[in-house]
Amino acid sequence: MNKAELVSAIAKRADVPASTVDAVLAGLQDELVDAITRGDKVAVSGLLTVERTQRSARTGRNPQTGEAIEIAAANTVKVTAGSNLKKAASAVPVS
Length: 95
Description:
Elements: H1 3-14, H2 18-38, E1 42-44, E2 48-55, E3 58-61, E4 68-71, E5 74-81, H3 83-91
Antiparallel strand pairs: 1-2, 2-5, 3-4
Helix pairs in contact: 1-2
Family: Belongs to the bacterial histone-like protein family.
GO molecular function: DNA binding; structural constituent of chromatin
Organism: Blastococcus aggregatus
C-alpha cells in the first residue's frame, strides 16, 4: 500500500475528505521528524514506537573484495511494532 492508497482508505473509513487525511499525515511526518531530531521517543499506544538510536563504529567487509573497511558511528531510527500490530501479524496464518 502506498501513501495515496493509505490516504484513500483512511478517508473512506473515517468518512472525511482525502485532503484532510493527507494534511494529517503530513503533520504526523513533520512531527516525527522534529521529535527524532530532538532525540525524543514517540509512542502511539498499541500501534508503534519510534525513537532515535546510535549505532557504534565497527569494522565491516567489502562484499566484492573482502577487504576490511571501517564503518563510522551513526544515528538511526528504530521503529517498534505495538501490541495491536503484533496481534494482527500473529493472527495471519503462516504460508
